[in-house]
Amino acid sequence: MNALSEPPSSAETPWRILPQGDRCLIISFGDRIDAAIGRTCLAAARKLRDARLPGVTDVVPSFVAVAVHYRPDGLGNGPTCASLTARIGALLADGVTADALDGRQIDVPVCYGGEHGPDLPDVARAAGVTPDDIIALHSQPRSMVFMLGFAPGHAYLGVHDEKLNIPRRPSPRTAVPTGAVAVANRQTVIYPNRLPGGWNIIGATPLTLFDPAREPASLLQPGDSVRFVPISPQEFDRIREARP
């Protein structure tokens, strides 16, 4: 089932606001990875950014929560934890309408299997299907970008079919190649550069995921809808060589 096909919720959404150290508040909207909760986090983050609350330095959505970073009231000209909590509570008191899928729709070419996807056979065996079935399950429905994290431009996408509810590798790799497309726990990550990682690599994209000289620097943004498009190794090389 494609979780992204479900309509957004417009009902009042409960939340909890908890301090995370002395410079951050966490607004929690749930405890599971779910497209509707993810869209609610995106909507809440946008609402808080638009409010331009004094002292707030950054608003960061994730799968189930929104982090609000702020400068503490050390010199009398910034918010306290209590005052900021009250301001946020007042802003969200009328409810948060989950974002519809109105973000960008982006096609991401992926060369599956072989040297680009060394874990594809293992993922297929764990799921009890063929490698071609895994490619179809991964590429046919669109996937939502829930958040960026771990490294600049490192996107987390989902939620995939239950057959892709595969655990991470028992031993992580010390170096995962740039552009690797990997799955675990019904999610996908795309490595923007060479990084350590323990997800199951099923393919790679020739696209540049993060470029500081580009605006925005990250190719994928939270709320984007991504379609993975299978390509051949020859097409992979052609696209990579054509990059500026």
TrEMBL record:
Residue ranges annotated for the Carboxyltransferase domain, each copy included: 15-220
Taxonomic superkingdom: Bacteria
UniProt GO MF annotations: protein kinase inhibitor activity
Coiled-coil segments on the chain, per record: none
Keyword Membrane assigned: no
Alphabetized SUPFAM superfamilies for the sequence: Cyclophilin-like, PH0987 N-terminal domain-like
Alphabetical UniProt keywords: ATP-binding, Hydrolase, Nucleotide-binding, Protein kinase inhibitor
Keyword tRNA processing: no
SMART domains documented for this protein: AHS1
NCBIfam families in alphabetical order: 5-oxoprolinase subunit PxpB
Entry protein name: KipI family sensor histidine kinase inhibitor
Species: Achromobacter marplatensis
